[in-house]
């Protein structure tokens, strides 16, 4: 009879990949062992595209899994952070509801298997290095993003 897989082992590949995206993987793992989120600077493996969490939920449903990478959420601040390729800033520049942070911007990440503070993975890193396709992300948020309705004169 096969031994049941430990719960933590399910997330090991995602944690390894995420920690390796940092210049200091040992510090990332150390923070997680102490139940702290770990700051991981963008620019080595990915950039961060920020949206409102409330807008991210329907967008996630519009994006097929094959085009979707890790997405981190924080309900307290109504933010979602999509991990996107290093050249995504140009493709997402015209989408009002998406802000692409520059290389070096730190994303404070929990490990893939659980939430810390108010942060949780909507789509967990799986260790494959898959990122969200920026063209698909732009389409999911619509042309120009959400716009407030014009007020009547």
Question: What's the quick description here?
Answer:
This protein is an alpha+beta fold and 153 residues long. 29% of the residues lie in helices and 21% in strands. It is built from six helices and seven strands.
β-strand percent reads 15-25%
What structural category arises from helix and sheet content?
Answer: alpha+beta
Question: What average pLDDT do the residues reach?
Answer: 88
* Helix amount: 25-40%
Following the backbone from N to C, one meets helices and strands in this order, namely HHHEEHEEHEEEH
Query: Radius of gyration, Cα only, in angstroms?
Result: 16 Å
Shape: globular
Low-confidence stretches: 1-5, 144-153
Largest sheet entry = 5 strands, antiparallel
Q: N-to-C terminal Cα separation, in Å?
A: 73 Å
In total, the number of strands is 7
Strand order of the largest sheet: 5-2-4-3-7
Number of helices: 6
């Amino acid at each position: 009879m096969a031994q049941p897989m430990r719960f933590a082992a399910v997330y090991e590949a995602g944690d390894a990949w995420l920690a390796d995206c940092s210049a200091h993987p040992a510090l990332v793992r150390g923070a997680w062992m102490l139940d702290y989120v770990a700051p991981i600077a963008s620019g080595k493996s990915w950039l961060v595209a920020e949206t409102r969490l409330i807008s991210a939920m329907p967008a996630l449903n519009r994006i097929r899994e094959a085009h979707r990478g890790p997405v981190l959420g924080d309900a307290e601040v109504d933010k979602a952070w999509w991990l996107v390729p290093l050249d995504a800033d140009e493709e997402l520049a015209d989408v009002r509801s998406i802000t692409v942070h520059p290389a070096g911007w730190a994303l404070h990440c929990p490990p893939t298997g659980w939430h810390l503070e108010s942060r949780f993975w909507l789509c967990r890193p799986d260790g494959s290095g898959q990122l969200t396709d920026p063209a698909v992300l732009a389409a999911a948020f619509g042309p120009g993003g959400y716009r407030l309705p014009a007020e009547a004169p």
